[in-house]
């Protein structure tokens, strides 16, 4: 297992992190599994043995059940594992049971600490943007939690580029706890994050944690053009996180993914993970599993070393049209490029 600095912080995290949406899953979360305490212990043990030191959850996963199962299952492993959780989405029907107000943030962290059976959260993340709450209020509450010792580091998730930049700027101006990470969706299937989010992270010294690097299971290789989908699998049109906007492009990506996988004698899923790990500004991939067998295969992705030709082939088949003003800058501003600019352009054009 390799470790990378989480943004400009001194914290080092493993390139794979254990996702726990399936822990104690109910309702919509059962799509990623329904893992009880015993299975959670086994997954945590496997992840720790492989060198994973970060486990990610959220208060709203199964209305707190994920945090509760994680808290029970960690036991003595807590001393070796960093816990990341999130706040923002609804935890009840009341008018203050969602959002990033000081009231909801403080109330939510206390509830998360109880469910997780710990005295501190290593990475506390805003689970999404709250346009109704002044950013000063949210960041002030986060800063108070860091100063009190209940939280070690602050991150955001699912922000746009301008929202991330605004949060970083305000935290710096007010000398509040800095934003050390963003958690976003990114994969070879959908590289939208390269346009603004990854360059912004590079520029601001923000680490990037990737959720659903296998696109919710799309990149496992079982969905292929002119192949029968295994019984019980979802259809492509059923995906909304992430959506499949162009089925033919998706099938083209899968075919190249399978070709690269065959050259390495590896499952396509491991190639998809290795691709994302190799990308600039990516710190860690959050991976979950329905079973210990699936987790064992996923953890083995850290052993895969893709060649320059492998990466170039996957880049080419998953290429996208640059939106304005990026295509204009690529045409006229290449004489003065910063490292953040290159995060986009090198990935898009292959250097």
UniProtKB/TrEMBL annotation:
InterPro entries referenced in this protein's UniProt entry, alphabetically: AKR, AKR_Detox_Biosynth, Aldo/ket_reductase_CS, NAD(P)_OxRdtase_dom_sf, NADP_OxRdtase_dom
Residue ranges of every copy of the NADP-dependent oxidoreductase domain listed in the record: 16-318
Source organism superkingdom: Bacteria
SUPFAM superfamilies per the UniProt record, alphabetical: NAD(P)-linked oxidoreductase
PROSITE patterns named in the record: ALDOKETO_REDUCTASE_2
Family annotation (PANTHER family): NADH-SPECIFIC METHYLGLYOXAL REDUCTASE-RELATED, OXIDOREDUCTASE
Protein name per its UniProtKB record: Aldo/keto reductase
Lineage: Bacteria, Bacillati, Actinomycetota, Actinomycetes, Mycobacteriales
């Amino acid at each position: 297992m390799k470790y990378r600095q989480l943004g400009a912080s001194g914290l080092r995290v493993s390139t794979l992190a254990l996702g726990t949406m399936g822990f104690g899953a109910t309702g919509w979360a059962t799509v990623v599994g329904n893992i009880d305490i015993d299975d959670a212990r086994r997954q945590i043990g496997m992840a720790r043995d492989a060198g994973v030191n970060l486990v990610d959850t959220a208060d709203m996963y199964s209305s707190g059940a994920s945090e509760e199962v994680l808290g029970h299952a960690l036991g003595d492993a807590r001393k070796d594992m960093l816990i990341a959780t999130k706040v923002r989405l609804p935890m009840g029907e009341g008018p203050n049971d969602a959002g990033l107000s000081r009231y909801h943030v403080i109330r939510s962290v206390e509830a998360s600490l109880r469910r997780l059976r710990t005295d501190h959260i290593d990475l506390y993340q805003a689970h999404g943007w709250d346009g109704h709450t002044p950013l000063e209020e949210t960041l002030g509450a986060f800063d108070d939690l860091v100063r009190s010792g209940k939280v070690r580091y602050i991150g955001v998730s699912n922000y746009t580029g301008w929202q991330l930049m605004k949060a970083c700027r305000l935290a710096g101006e007010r000398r509040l706890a800095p934003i050390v990470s963003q958690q976003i969706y990114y994969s070879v299937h959908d590289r939208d994050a390269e346009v603004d989010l990854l360059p912004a992270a590079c520029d601001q010294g923000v680490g990037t944690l990737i959720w659903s690097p296998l696109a919710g299971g799309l990149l496992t290789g079982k969905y292929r053009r002119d192949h029968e989908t295994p019984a019980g699998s979802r259809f492509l049109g059923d995906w909304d996180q992430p959506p499949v906007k162009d089925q033919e492009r998706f099938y083209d990506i899968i075919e190249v993914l399978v070709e690269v996988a065959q050259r390495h004698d590896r499952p396509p899923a491991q190639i998809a993970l290795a691709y994302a790990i190799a990308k600039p500004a990516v710190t860690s991939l959050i991976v979950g599993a329905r079973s210990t067998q699936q987790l064992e295969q996923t953890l083995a992705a850290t052993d895969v070393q893709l060649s320059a030709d492998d990466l170039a082939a996957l880049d080419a088949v998953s290429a996208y049209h640059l939106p304005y003003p990026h295509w204009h800058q690529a045409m006229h501003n290449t004489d003065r490029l910063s490292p953040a600019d290159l995060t986009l352009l090198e990935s898009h054009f292959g250097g």
